[in-house]
């Protein structure tokens, strides 16, 4: 793209010898002033003469300097120009493509993270259910998942894959309640998965918004609007309808899933209630890594006290279990458990909490459908209707929360 450089000066004198620059360029010929112009001062005592300005254009000539178009040669060095000079250089054709490529790349990365989040969650629920059916010790299974996660975190810090944080005592005290409820939430989820089907556990866990509203009102003083309360009606009704027609229903699995809802939402409330100072705050990935290690140390004494040492090869062989198969599935489930939660925190760093909750709702639908197909879980029409109503209520709740968030920002 060619551009024009224009020089204005109160007195211009053209050289007698033609100027021969080294580089060639094409330009047009025009003669805006056919006669010399004279300017006088206000009192008429002096005058200045300006010769006609000539710009010649000839594609075969070489009368432009390398910098672009010019109308006159540069002024003599002894005198500074009193005019204004405007120059524009050519821009590459791809200069306007950078702002477009960056958002596109961010969208691709975010979409890939959502896909990995769903994929890891599907594999975790399938392998975890298989392990719990053959090895009915949910506390030991949960401890193994925290152990694998802790090893991965330590390797990540040791190999400098992620910056190792410097934790103060005040931060550990603030994180301890979060780690406790995180431990209980995952433990109760595994207890429920060991008793009822995967689809029913996730249907009950769709009631998380209900517990979020109740706990926020009790401990944070955040009372819900009428629209939020209205969105909770289909959630509670759908879960109740699905529970009445669930083939694998039992109270232990039901109350374990409800306890998981309570503890998981308590974690969200505590994260606001026990927030550390802003200058000492941790990013989401680091916070999750620390919580994983703390959860392992919190659960280990309880696991050994209640279930004992049940994961040795001798015990598994005596119980008639396939040791290699159980270890392999347990390891894959633990890897997927840590991976999907790690990816979940990575997504939370890129999107708003409301968008994250919508994605979580879609993830629950995907997990329910895939588990029903994989395990061939019998689903009655009323059970499917109740599950659909509950999930629709969760989606409606996330949309209402989004409207509320927009109203606050405005």
What is the count of distinct domains? 2
Low-confidence sequence ranges: 1-17, 21-34, 39-47, 55-74, 78-98, 275-279
**Main beta-sheet strand count, sense and barrel state:** 2 strands, antiparallel
Total beta strand runs: 4
Keywords:
globular; about 400 residues; two-stranded antiparallel sheet; phosphoglycerate transmembrane transporter activity; transport; phosphoenolpyruvate:phosphate antiporter activity; 12 helices; two-stranded antiparallel ribbon; 2 domains
Task: Outline the structure in words.
This protein is an all-alpha fold. It has two domains: 1-91, no CATH class; 106-409, no CATH class. The protein is 62% helix and 3% strand. The protein contains twelve helices and four strands; from the N terminus they run ββββαααααααααααα. The strands form two sheets. A two-stranded antiparallel sheet has the order 1-4. Strands 2-3 form a two-stranded antiparallel sheet. The relative contact order is 0.13.
Q: Which secondary structure elements does this structure contain, and how are they paired or packed?
A:
Blueprint lengths: L5 E2 L29 E4 L6 E4 L34 E2 L11 H37 L3 H21 L10 H27 L2 H7 L3 H13 L5 H19 L6 H23 L10 H23 L6 H6 L4 H28 L2 H23 L5 H29 L1
Helix pairs in contact: 1-10, 1-11, 2-3, 2-8, 2-10, 3-7, 3-8, 4-11, 5-7, 6-12, 8-10, 11-12
Q: What's the short story on this structure?
A:
With 410 residues, this protein is mainly alpha-helical. Helices cover 62% and strands 3% of the residues. It has two domains: 1-91, no CATH class; 106-409, no CATH class.
């Amino acid at each position: 793209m060619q551009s024009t450089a224009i020089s204005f000066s109160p007195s211009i004198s053209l050289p007698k010898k033609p100027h021969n620059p080294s580089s060639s360029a094409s330009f047009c010929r025009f003669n805006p002033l056919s006669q010399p112009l004279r300017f006088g001062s206000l009192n008429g005592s002096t005058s200045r003469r300006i010769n006609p300005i000539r710009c010649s254009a000839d594609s075969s000539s070489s009368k432009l300097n390398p910098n672009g178009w010019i109308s006159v040669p540069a002024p003599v060095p002894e005198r500074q120009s009193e005019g204004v000079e405007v120059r524009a250089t050519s821009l590459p054709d791809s200069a306007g493509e950078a702002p477009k490529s960056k958002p596109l790349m961010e969208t691709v990365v975010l979409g890939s993270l959502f896909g990995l989040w769903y994929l890891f969650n599907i594999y975790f629920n399938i392998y975890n259910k298989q392990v719990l059916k053959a090895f009915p010790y949910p506390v030991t299974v949960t401890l193994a998942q925290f152990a694998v996660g802790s090893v991965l975190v330590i390797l990540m810090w040791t190999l400098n894959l992620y910056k190792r944080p410097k934790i103060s005592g005040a931060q550990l005290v603030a994180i301890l309640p979060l780690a406790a409820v995180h431990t209980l939430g995952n433990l109760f989820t595994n207890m429920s998965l060991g008793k009822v089907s995967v689809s029913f556990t996730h249907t009950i866990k769709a009631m998380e918004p209900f517990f979020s509203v109740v706990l926020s009102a009790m401990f944070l003083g955040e009372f819900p609007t009428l629209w939020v309360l209205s969105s909770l009606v289909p959630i509670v009704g759908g879960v109740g309808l699905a529970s009445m027609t669930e083939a694998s229903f039992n109270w232990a699995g039901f109350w374990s899933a409800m306890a998981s809802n309570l503890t998981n939402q308590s974690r969200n409330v505590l994260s606001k209630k026990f927030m550390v100072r802003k200058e000492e705050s941790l990013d989401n990935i680091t916070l999750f890594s620390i919580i994983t290690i703390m959860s392992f140390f919190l659960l280990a004494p309880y696991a050994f006290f209640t279930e004992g040492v049940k994961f040795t090869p001798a015990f598994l062989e005596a119980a008639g279990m396939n040791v290699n198969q159980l270890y392999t599935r347990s390891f894959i489930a633990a890897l997927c458990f840590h991976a999907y939660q790690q990816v979940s925190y990575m997504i939370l760093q890129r999107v708003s909490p409301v968008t994250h909750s919508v994605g979580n709702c879609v993830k629950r639908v995907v997990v329910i459908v895939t588990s029903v197909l994989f395990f061939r879980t019998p689903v009655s029409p009323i059970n499917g209707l109740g599950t659909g109503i509950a999930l629709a209520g969760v989606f409606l709740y996330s949309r209402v929360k989004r409207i509320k968030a927009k109203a606050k920002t405005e």
